Amino acid sequence: MVISQLIFYTLAAFTLISSLFVVFSKNPIYSVLWLIVCFFTIAGHFVMLNAQFLAVVHIIVYSGAIMVLFLFTVMLLNLNKETEPHKPTLLKFGAVIAGGALFIIVIAAMRSSMPAPYVAPQLSEIGYVKNIGIKLYKDYTLPFEVASILFLSAMVGSVVLAKKERS
Amino acid sequence: MESTLQAVPQNWYLLLSTFMFCIGVMGVLLRRNAIIILMCIELMLNAVNLLLVSFSSYAGNAEGQVFVFFIMVVAAAEVAVGLALLVSIYRNVASTDIDILSKMKW
Question: What is the pLDDT of residues A59-89, one digit of tens each?
């Protein structure tokens, strides 16, 4: 077995196990921490797919910014195991069955159209910072600038929403 | 060391991201805490990101990775606004249980 195959299987196992823990752990803090593990393994997948730029951005944005936001909110709202609401057991079974059925349906739909096991002929270098940067600033300049407006409006909107209302 | 591009068939990435997406769907259906539901939506977004990156890397086309970059931008904005909404909801009803928030139901 090639070493990169081994790395892929280990990373995939970690990704799936940590995402299962996100869903099934009782304490919201543990869910957030498992989600951080999950994001790090996905960044590892990006590195193995030769998308270095996206791996770094993923760690900075998700594991850095978004997870800090989640952790702060969970701690600010003082959510813990005691205050955690639960659905009745019947609904839980229903949810698990619905998720499994969705998985089976998507796999069955993919099976008929799935191509033969495909490996890339040569190592692609499109994920490097230089190539992505050229693409981003040459062909996608306008969306890049519009994204900054989106960020600005999201910032203003979140401040307005989270501010205490004066009555 | 060679990357997985030559060693692992792309079908495995398809399977992995489908499974992750279904775990996210299951979490949305299973949990009642709104923050956990937001986290499961992040999980689904990440499954789609992984799929896009794998397709773009295997096909040698940079457009998919640019799309993933923009998806990350939108996800960050979405989380900021969503958590602000949750904080203001918590201030009003002192809970993040989504079953309490049924005023829009007729």
Answer: 999 988 899 999 998 888 887 777 777 778 8
Are B58 and A123 a contacting pair, CB within 8 Å? no
B-chain CB neighbours of A132 within 8 Å are: 62, 65-66, 69
Q: For residue A46, which of A132, A148, A136 has the smallest C-alpha distance?
A: A132
Taking the CA of residue A41 as centre, how many other CA atoms within 13 Å lie in the half-sphere pointing to its CB? 23
CATH number of the domain at A3-127, out of 1.20.120.1200, 2.60.120.460, 1.10.3720.10, 3.40.30.10? 1.20.120.1200
DSSP at A63: I
Cβ distance A161 to B88 under 8 Å? yes
Inter-chain CB proximity A151 and B76 less than 8 Å: yes
CB contact under 8 A, A147 and B58: no
Give the torsion sign (CA, B24, B25, B31, B34).
positive
What phi-psi label fits residue B65: left (phi over 0), alpha (psi between -120 and 50 degrees) or beta? Answer: alpha
pLDDT computed for residue A121 by the predictor: 66
Give the ipTM: 0.90
**For testing contact with chain A, the best of B12, B37, B87 (most A CBs within 10 A):** B87
